[in-house]
Amino acid sequence: MAILGTLLKQGIKLRESLDQERNSPLDLQRNELKELLKTAEDTEFGKAHGFKDLLKSADKDKLYAVFKEQVPVHSYNEMYNKWWYKNRLGQKNITWPGKVKYFALSSGTSESSSKYIPVTKDMMKSIQKTSIRQILSLSKFDIPSHTFESGILMLGGSTHLNYNGTYFEGDLSGITTGQIPFWFQHFYKPGKKIASNRSWDEKLDQITRNAKKWDIGIIAGVPAWIQILMEKIITYYGVKTIHDIWPNLKIYVHGGVSFEPYRKGFEQLLAKPLVYIETYLASEGFIAYQNKPEVRSMHLVLNNGLFYEFVPFNEENFDADGQMVSNPKTYMIDEVEENKEYAILITTCAGAWRYLIGDTVKIVNKEEAEIVITGRTKHFLSLCGEHLSVDNMNKAIELVAKELNIAVKEFTVAGIPHDTLFAHHWYVGTDDKVDSELLMHKIDEKLKELNDDYKVERSAALKEVFLDILPTKVFYDYLRHQGKEGGQNKFPRVLKKDKLPSWLEFLENQGK
Fold first, then answer.
1. What range defines the domain where residue 424 resides?
2. How many domains does the chain have?
3. pLDDT for 12-56, tens place per residue?
4. Which residue range or ranges hold the GH3 middle domain (predicted)?
């Protein structure tokens, strides 16, 4: 199918893509909100919140103001306990027209029990459409045509979904991969049979044994698991780099966590540089993707079934545990400030309404609606006002790893009591030799440079920083122990509440 590569290199684009480029972010989002309200006006949720009257009474300039007066913000528990549980019982027209046939199981990295996120037909169409837009945006990158004629390896959850007689449930990656269009199946690896395997270890073994048969040009998946797979393949075939097996490998599409802490170890497995492309595909929808080379930011998808609100991530709107207040200040895309941190609320064509997705972002280009992910609302440390974000942690690890010439594949941090005050305890996963005291000191100093609040509190209430170095394998063994191996599962960057005792008990049992 050489024609695919030719089309991409010529930069052919969909009309929907051009629509987003022609209109302002505000106009696109106003239209999206209106369409979502119109579509859902006869659902139980729409009737309960007066969508018909809202649409009649409010003009386009006032629609959002009336919308947020009539519709409350929702956490997952609030959305599920009042509305989504009915979808699981087989009821229809609850928060979106029709029945929900699929649920994505998502525990994220902050909750112990699985969340059931509805995936409607409209949402699957939305994800497919945005995926095609992202593929077409690759025409802007310096990529040879033959890359797009090679295979695309997508390492995700099992496509074998559980069915209870009413709906299917599984990883979003498993749901969407099972719905790939026929024309894409020629390129897709590892293929339906291997992808349906529920055993993560067996799946990696099967991919490894078949790797040499495939010509892979693009790989997609969570950094930790892609790196583990590449290491496994390199060892199995006794070669030096993954390019000895896949010489045409050129693109890595990643998301879910910051790639920077993995970069050094990742690139040791390559013979030539890759084009790295970040995506923001959550269980609740395909939110953003990188559409320009040499930039860290991603382009928000503004006209494909998603409406966004932005909540300033501060003490006024969130408590010390990252819980949002009942009536936070919210803004549309035209009202945000660049380089300020916000939590995202989304309203979607899967029946999520003013739903706190749990991620924090910064808008780095308001006119182009470009964002970077900075962390999670519950993955930050502020025991005494240090306001340490995951973004700060990732950057410190990246800088220190480069300075000490080590590869840090995983890390996590806990805030703990220390005497009458507080301390941070770091657990750093690296298989390189490094002095723990030196590593602790370097990370501490970098954080002082990156975060003024942290610097102040290190001379006040944040009295100590502790650090343990662990083999990388320990982090993945813990995920396996928690039943979260592979697919979209990531290790939490901050350990709070029930997560910390579980982690400490695991380490003790492992003799660590």
1. 380-509
2. 2
3. 444 444 445 568 999 999 999 999 999 999 999 999 999 999 998
4. 300-365
- Sign, Cα dihedral of 198, 201, 204, 210: negative
Cα–Cα distance for residue pair 465/455, rounded to 1 Å: 12
C-alpha dihedral over 247, 253, 255, 258, to 10 degrees? Answer: 60
In sequence order, which residues have a C-beta less than 8 Å from that of residue 403 and are 6 or more positions away? 442
Which CA distances in Å does 500 have to 420, 440, 450, 466, 483? Answer: 20, 20, 26, 15, 17
Residues 384 and 276 in one domain: no
Residue type, 432: D
Q: String of b and e for 13-49 (b: at least 16 CB within 10 Å)? A: eeeebeebeeeebbebbbbbbbebbebbbebbbbeeb
119 in Cβ contact with 175 (< 8 Å): yes
The token duo for 78 is 């609030």
pLDDT for 293-309, tens place per residue? 878 899 999 999 999 99
Q: 101-158 pLDDT, tens per residue?
A: 999 987 554 444 578 999 999 999 999 889 888 877 887 888 877 777 888 898 887 7
Structure tokens at 364: 């780095």
Instruction: Give the number of C-alpha atoms closer than 13 A to the C-alpha of residue 272, restricted to the C-beta side.
Output: 11
Last residue of a domain, one of 239, 257, 282: 282
In-domain check, residue 78: no
Q: CA nearest 390: which of 326, 343, 338?
A: 343
**Exposure string over 50-71, b if 16+ CB within 10 A, otherwise e:** ebeebbeebeeeebbebbbeeb
| Rounded distance between C-alpha atoms, residue 249 and residue 272, angstroms | 9
Give the predicted TM-score (pTM) of the model: 0.81
Element (H, E) at 277: strand 275-282
Is 100 contained in some domain? no
Look-up: residue for tokens 């459409």? Answer: 129
> What is the C-alpha to C-alpha distance for residues 261 and 223, in angstroms, rounded to an integer?
10
